[in-house]
Write the structure tokens for this entry.
Amino acid sequence: MAWHKNQGVLYFAHFQVYMYKEIKETSMRIMAMKEYKAHLLMVAAQIGYTLLYIITEASFKHGLNPHVYITYRHIVGGFVMLPFAFFLERKQRPNLTLPLFFEIFVLSLLGYTSPTFVASMVNTIASLTFIIAVGLRMEGLDLRNPRGIAKLMGTLISLCGVMTMSLYKGPIMKNVRKPLIHVHGSLSNNTESWLKGSILTVASCITWSIWYIMQAFTLKRYPAQLSLTTWMSFIGAAQSAFFTVIVQHTKSAWTIGFDIDLWSIVYGGVVVSGLIVFVQLWCTEAKGPVFVTMFNPLSTILVATLAYFVLGEKLYLGSIVGAVIVIIGLYLLLWGKDDAQQSNSSTNIDANENKINRDSSFEKRVTPGEGVP
């Protein structure tokens, strides 16, 4: 009887080890999917920004006022996200105090000053955010660790790629085919507008970097991404409307027809002010602000590619070289930031494995003939 009892315990130990291995493999697959969920979401967000650039460029050339566009876009985004925020975050949404409302007001103001167009200088936001995050100790940087060196080198290499795209043009690449889409109209392109635009773009990059950093602080006090997205949209719409009324006095500028202007506003409100901002807030809380800004150069690369093949715009060799450098730097930075979560996951798995091994150690002590009278 004792032999049969020990055999049952032995079989149970084998079964326990087998089930643990199956659970471990399944857990590893699930963790791998969760690990790259934020990466895939940010790539999708950059694709969304790319389409935004193409659509808004067409609508602005059609005559849509940029300030009116931003106002309407935020209004659409706020109303789209409102029902989701109200029902899905009803229990987890904290009370909105006056200091917290002021914080969201400033956050919305910084988001409003962010650049609408995709420019090469916008790609410096990742480097600026990384420097600010390290200074505020939100981002760890251990130069004694290879991954810490990779984060620093990835940032510097990406910045070199951005500078290459901005300062070096090189020869024009020959168009391989006729453009699929012709965008009619023109934008003012004099020296004064270029100088003003350059100054505003630099200022926007700085404020946008602060915007990403501030999101991380606000999410700690208001951990409801849908509600925060909704508040930012409505407050941003009010701020934009106040400024637009001052600089734009013609009533015709506020009139939107059933044309590219309407579709541009709907797309910008639903996809960008709504979905993409929510995705960025989720990724900021999960991975940090530096992770989110690392993907900004992808939109510039995608825009250049799409504009070349679809709109027939000029593509320079410097853009291609710079894009390759940016991708190398982005890969290094992603690899450098990927260590903390993997380390925590490995620690938890090893702890569970040690527990199972202790529980199944009877397998080594019990033999089929042991305990037989």
